[in-house]
Amino acid sequence: MAGTLYLCGTPIGNLEDISFRVIELLKTVDLIAAEDTRHTLHLLNHFQINTTMTSYHEHNKQSKGLQLIEKLKKDINIALVTDAGMPGISDPGADLVKLCYENDIPVTVVPGASACMIALVLSGLDTRRFVFEGFLPSDKRERRTVLQSLSKEHRTIILYEAPHRLLHTLEELSETLGEDKTVIVMKELTKKFEQRRKDNIKGHIKYYMQNPPKGEFVLAIEGVSLAQQKEESQQQYQAISIEEHMSYYLAQGLSEKEAMKQAAKDRGVSKREIYAYYHKK
């Protein structure tokens, strides 16, 4: 029989947020694979856990991942932890999970804190639907593509960012989303000096230029409202004539009546107005 890989959620700030189940599991597994063994040692010492640790991080995930798979095949149970929160989210834990499934090794989750979900509910923005982007790509072209897609996103957006990149990211968001876009910037989540700042992007840039960013940040960005989407759509269609607009739908195979109805909806006007203009000779 193979061992099991346990994905263990650890505190993102307040050590007391760890669950009894995670503590018990970390005590009883054969091995703990940690993103940073020095960081995790502080957690283990706090709860008097003496289980052997090994490192598993972005820079050794290929070689160490295969080693961990071999151990799991020999019925060794392994707990995977990240520095804070749930492993597998914006860290190489996801790669190890894939390896396990490819090798028919069981995987299970022992839940814990997640900065993404905590920030979402703390933001005060719409929580019915949201999109998690994690850290924006470092590749300039890919980053630009993602930012452009976010400019049309109507769901609440959650981003992670490091302190030394925060201002640059805010400036990019200002260029793409507009300086008046509402953003909630949060840091020190669950800690004593937890901070939540609500402002537009322009205000955040001004604040962090005067107060150099420190700590790990989570950004919650207000999505494009349906009213704003409708307004932008109507502005887009105003750039073409009604005749061009009608020709587009007629070329799609719509009847004249259906084309008028759709053009009127696109432009935010009545069908009567479209009819009057279209048949004006």
Explain the overall architecture.
With 281 residues, this protein is α/β, with parallel strands linked by helices. Helices cover 45% and strands 17% of the residues. The strands form two sheets. It has a five-stranded parallel β-sheet with strand order 3-2-4-1-5, with helices on both faces. Strand 8 and strand 9 form a beta hairpin. Helix 3 packs across helix 4 (93-102), helix 7 (166-177) packs antiparallel against helix 8 and helix 11 (256-267) crosses helix 12 (271-278).
Can you list the strand order of the major beta sheet? 3-2-4-1-5
* DSSP strand tally: 10
| Estimated share of beta-strand residues | 15-25%
| Helical percentage | 40-55%
* Secondary-structure content class: alpha/beta
- The 3D shape can be described as elongated
Question: Which SSEs are present, and which pair or pack?
Answer:
Elements: E1 5-8, H1 20-28, E2 31-34, H2 37-46, E3 53-55, H3 61-73, E4 78-81, H4 93-102, E5 107-110, H5 115-123, E6 130-135, H6 140-150, E7 156-161, H7 166-177, E8 182-187, E9 195-200, H8 201-210, E10 217-221, H9 226-238, H10 242-251, H11 256-267, H12 271-278
Parallel strand pairs: 1-4, 1-5, 2-3, 2-4, 6-7
Antiparallel strand pairs: 7-10, 8-9, 8-10
